[in-house]
Amino acid sequence: MSIPVQNLYHLLTYAWDQLKEAEAVAVAAEPADTLLDLLARVLVQGTTHVLKRGLARDYVPETELTGRVRGKLLLSDSIRQQTLPTARAWCSFDELSHDVPINRLLKATLHQLLTAAQLDDKLRREVRALYIRLADVSLISVRDVRVFDQVLLHRHNAHYRLLLSICRLVHEEALLTQETGKYLFSDFTGNEKRMAALFERFVRNFYRLRQQHFSVKAEKLDWHLTPDSSAAKALLPGMQTDVSLTAADRKIIIDCKYYQEALKKHYDKEKLISGHLYQLYAYVQHARCQQATRPVRGMLLYPVTHQPLRLQYQLTGTLASLEVATLDLGQHWTKVEKDLLSLL
């Protein structure tokens, strides 16, 4: 599936729930940009902004052999090393420093970009210049992206939020390409599992941010069944929607399907994918039980760049309906947003 680089970036910023941060670092893709180039461009501009504003600082523990007592005197260490006769002692103290985890991760990502063979030459020079400016920050090796979960963001460093999301994505990709031997982001959209999760989060956050009529969330639905035993109840699988839009007057359940095609060949005839339709039907039937008089629409949403679909099926004798729709992610982004809003 071919998705323009700029549109991929929009998908990411919505999925990360960082639309405002992305608007503050407004960067447009240049015609020859790869996703790597565009992310590097955002990182360059964002890091430049951070440096102008001032790198995040925090108190870090230091140990020093000094001629004056500072902080806590490490008496046992000083005695063991016989420093006291020389009028010096080992002391531990906290010192305000830029060499903190959030800056180390930023520097590690700039270093990772410098090692990317396919990065645009002009961008490489800009990245190197910023890397040099972080000379007083330690260079670390990121072997597990869960290290990003340990960074605490607060009002004094919240402006790092978008940068950290990009840094994490770069390192996730770097760890993946170490296994496959491919270039960074050379096959980003080819990872269907990752793109499916990205598409789902994008749609959910888009509707949460771009309209006010519905409350939006991923919703756990109850099975309206009566099990004959606790064992039977325990074996029921969970039922969770990708996107539930709920209002007093109606409810919409969207099941996001990141598939190349919304139709499948069956005996040389194109048909809807039965498993997807059955799943949506189950969601709608159980959602109807929440409030019998409220209309419920279920929608299968496919991101395709051709063969547009907008199919509707009314459940006979009910206020419920099923729909199948496609969203062209290859068109201009303003049209993508307009089409999404038109589905409501």
From TrEMBL:
<dbReference type="InterPro" id="IPR019292">
    <property type="entry name" value="McrC"/>
</dbReference>
<dbReference type="GO" id="GO:0004519">
    <property type="term" value="F:endonuclease activity"/>
</dbReference>
<protein>
    <submittedName>
        <fullName>5-methylcytosine-specific restriction endonuclease system specificity protein McrC</fullName>
    </submittedName>
</protein>
<dbReference type="Pfam" id="PF10117">
    <property type="entry name" value="McrBC"/>
</dbReference>
<dbReference type="GO" id="GO:0009307">
    <property type="term" value="P:DNA restriction-modification system"/>
</dbReference>
<keyword id="KW-0255">Endonuclease</keyword>
<keyword id="KW-0378">Hydrolase</keyword>
<dbReference type="InterPro" id="IPR014407">
    <property type="entry name" value="McrC_bac"/>
</dbReference>
<keyword id="KW-0540">Nuclease</keyword>
